[in-house]
UniProtKB/TrEMBL annotation:
<dbReference type="GO" id="GO:0046872">
    <property type="term" value="F:metal ion binding"/>
</dbReference>
<dbReference type="GO" id="GO:0009738">
    <property type="term" value="P:abscisic acid-activated signaling pathway"/>
</dbReference>
<keyword id="KW-0106">Calcium</keyword>
<dbReference type="InterPro" id="IPR035892">
    <property type="entry name" value="C2_domain_sf"/>
</dbReference>
<dbReference type="GO" id="GO:0005096">
    <property type="term" value="F:GTPase activator activity"/>
</dbReference>
<keyword id="KW-0472">Membrane</keyword>
<protein>
    <submittedName>
        <fullName>Protein C2-DOMAIN ABA-RELATED 11-like isoform X2</fullName>
    </submittedName>
</protein>
<dbReference type="GO" id="GO:0008289">
    <property type="term" value="F:lipid binding"/>
</dbReference>
<dbReference type="InterPro" id="IPR000008">
    <property type="entry name" value="C2_dom"/>
</dbReference>
<keyword id="KW-0446">Lipid-binding</keyword>
<keyword id="KW-1003">Cell membrane</keyword>
<keyword id="KW-0938">Abscisic acid signaling pathway</keyword>
<dbReference type="GO" id="GO:0005634">
    <property type="term" value="C:nucleus"/>
</dbReference>
<comment type="similarity">
    <text>Belongs to the plant CAR protein family.</text>
</comment>
<dbReference type="Pfam" id="PF00168">
    <property type="entry name" value="C2"/>
</dbReference>
<keyword id="KW-0343">GTPase activation</keyword>
<keyword id="KW-0479">Metal-binding</keyword>
Length: 167
């Protein structure tokens, strides 16, 4: 990894319309990866619309890459089943944090940038990156790939090392 930029806090909020991998339901959990860092949520038993609300933390460094996630169905006696995967580029949130520094935004709520669904992300719909009381945040819904259905909601917060008052 290159030069450290800051801390990325990813809250895995919930899933919606996840696929059935067991007899009538699934026991989903989410694995989130950033470079060589990995974190995962707890398993929610027998649920296709799980609510996790779990915050996972990662160190963010140059070059800024993709945040990848995979959803799995926990199985007791065999390998866990894949329930889809998604990704989102972190470049827009880092660029928005730099813009925040230039504009010296530190209080209130200011929209810094909008991100539209494209090849660099699995966004379901347009997402705004905002500075809320000094913190750069993005709320996203990601469509899971390689499965019939499923979406995951994330809240992403970037805490910039170089800007005072963001810790």
């Amino acid at each position: 990894m290159g030069e450290p930029l800051g801390l990325l806090k990813v809250t895995v909020v919930r899933g919606k319309g996840l696929v059935i991998r067991d007899f009538k339901s699934s026991d989903p959990y989410v694995v989130v990866k950033l470079g060589n860092q990995t974190a995962r949520t707890r398993v929610i038993n027998s649920c296709l619309n799980p609510v996790w609300n779990e915050e996972l933390s990662f160190s963010l460094a140059e070059p800024v890459g993709m945040l990848n996630l995979e959803v799995f169905d926990r199985d007791r006696f065999k390998a866990d089943d894949k329930m889809g995967h998604a990704h989102i580029s972190l470049q827009p949130i880092v660029s928005a944090a730099r813009l925040r520094q230039i504009l010296k935004v530190s209080s209130g709520e200011t929209t810094l940038r909008k991100v539209v669904p494209d090849g660099d992300n699995c966004l379901v719909r347009e997402s705004s990156i905002a500075c809320i009381d000094g913190e750069v945040m993005q709320d996203v819904w990601l469509r899971l790939s390689d499965v019939e259905s499923g979406e995951i909601q994330l809240k992403i917060k970037f805490i910039d090392n170089s800007f005072p008052g963001t810790r």
